[in-house]
Amino acid sequence: MGSEMKKVELEDGQSADIVSENVSKLKELFPDAFSEGGVNFDTLRQLLGDASVLDEGEEKYGLNWHGKKKARQIALTPSTGTLLPCPDESVNWENTQNLFIEGDNLEVLKLLQKSYANKVKMIYIDPPYNTGSEFIYPDKFVEGLETYLRYSGQKNEEGEWEISESGREKTGRKHGNWLSMMYPRLFLAKSLLRQDGVLFVSIDDNEVGNIKGVLNEIFGEENFVGQMVWKKKYIGGKHAKHFVDLHEYVLVYAKNILDLPEILMDRPAAELEKFKLEDEFFDERGKYYTRPLKSNLGLRKTLIYPIEMPDGTIIDTQWMVARETFDQLVKDGRIVFMKKRDGTYNVHRKYYQNDGGGSVKVPSLIDEVSNADGKVEMKSLFQIQEGREIPFDNPKPTEFISYLMKPVLGKNDIVLDFFAGSASTAHTALKLNCSDSGNRKYILVQLPEICPDNSPAREQGYSTISDVAKERLRKVKENLLDGLKMDNLDLGFKVFKLSSSNIRAWNPDRTDLEESLLSHEEHLVEGRSEQDVLYELLLKRGVDLAVPIESREVAGKNIYSIGYGVLFACLDESIAKEQVEDIAQGIIAWYGELAPSSDTHVFFRDSAFRDDVSKTNMAAILEQNGITHVRSL
């Protein structure tokens, strides 16, 4: 038989190679610019037809900092890590479509590229603000915070601090370090968004200008939607030297603003109150309220023009709208002349309750919810007694995130937060699902940052920030289910943890190659479970992590079907020669039942086969029955 079972190497199991994909796209557009030596830039310049397109000058408009080139390279470097499933820490593991991932978000974003590219509708992030504290997000694959502290030179191999607290703070104050941390994450996040997707970034005054420059570069200035202002508190300034800091910003970018639909919100409750009026504010169109058309704003000559009143008098003053708009409002029956007690008139504009189907444009000023509301909310959820602190500093209020989320996130869409903190974003999505029977799904990513000794979190039994977030989601489930009868509501979450690949790297000992070959007979990392391997296959083959995994027993071996037949796997440690036919036929029968629309891949443990003949026979039987992608691990 000519069939052969290809062996999966570590490089086959890496995340999406963005550079290779970009080169392939360029080669499709300009094949003449490529030769065996790579890209011929002179030819590319000629094909573009305008040398100015390739800006090679030294003086360019844009944001630059020391380390930017490295940050871009980091974003383009594939990850060879994986996400290990943790069913014991999860809620409703078998059925939930929500994900909670522990680990460095840079590596996690790389690992999500194949499975979630162009699938996320909304991303909201509240990154660590650059206020002088250390950054704990390494740009190198790590398995935990202690590894990072050694990598960054803050601790030695014995776990002792190498630099002082003041030294760490000094490093954190540099804009370049913060931008280098943010750039690759935002770069990778963009590709996860759908074409009509939207990114929201909470930020303060320290970096709003810089991060906007980075976002303009990554998303394109033309995809800037707006800059919102959140009035996060109403009092303060006791220690302010100049201005009282009462606000933060939210920068909003579309992946492609041409695909972004109009952003509308339900009428605010305060505005709905205006429609509870007497019958005289009701006509054939329904209820309405009025507001004076006369303007008290600063002088604008284009808004000054005469309007004739019903009694023939003329009022020549500045109005809220231009003359053309006024004339159109008159035609639409939206202007009313209201007679005063002295017999003179005021000009008013009508606002109907049913305008826009009950929806209005979203104001860029958010002032109906304060930062304190987030603390109150968490205090109630965790049942914190009076006088004690919540286990997380300054959680974002769900009403604030709802203000952003509700107008853009459809009932079946995915929201991603890769600086998850205390899980306010997930809490918000679940509350919205409860309110409208939606099925919004979330992906959270949070580094297992160690809670400081003597902190409220430690005192309450939480070791890491991610522990706090997971417990919050458990409490949200209990809180939302209380009194509800919604069997289809997904309040669960799957927990995954970032780790090294299940596939062993080939690191031979040059002084003892024979021993190296013998030790590498087993291609998978010792101690990893079949479930660990299955989820790495999902990631590296671009399958959603929430798809169902089913199993059947064939010839005494467990056979797994992943994603309704997109993948099959038998990861048993031993497959005898006489079992090959039965296992192959079991897979073929199951494959026929499911009839997947895309190509099917089948995986086996390489060391399970006693000889190459058995392995070749397995591949041949499957390929003869239409399953051509057969691999060994």
From TrEMBL:
EC category name: transferase
Reaction(s) catalysed (UniProt annotation): a 2'-deoxyadenosine in DNA + S-adenosyl-L-methionine = an N(6)-methyl-2'-deoxyadenosine in DNA + S-adenosyl-L-homocysteine + H(+)
Pfam families, alphabetized: N6_N4_Mtase (PF01555)
InterPro entries xref list: DNA_methylase_N4/N6, DNA_methylase_N6_adenine_CS, N4/N6-MTase_EcoPI_Mod-like, SAM-dependent_MTases_sf
EC number assigned by the record: 2.1.1.72
Annotated source species: Sessilibacter corallicola
Family: Belongs to the N(4)/N(6)-methyltransferase family.
Signal peptide: none
Domain DNA methylase N-4/N-6: residue ranges: 120-433
SUPFAM superfamilies the record matches: S-adenosyl-L-methionine-dependent methyltransferases
Protein name as it appears in the record: site-specific DNA-methyltransferase (adenine-specific)
Keywords: Methyltransferase, S-adenosyl-L-methionine, Transferase
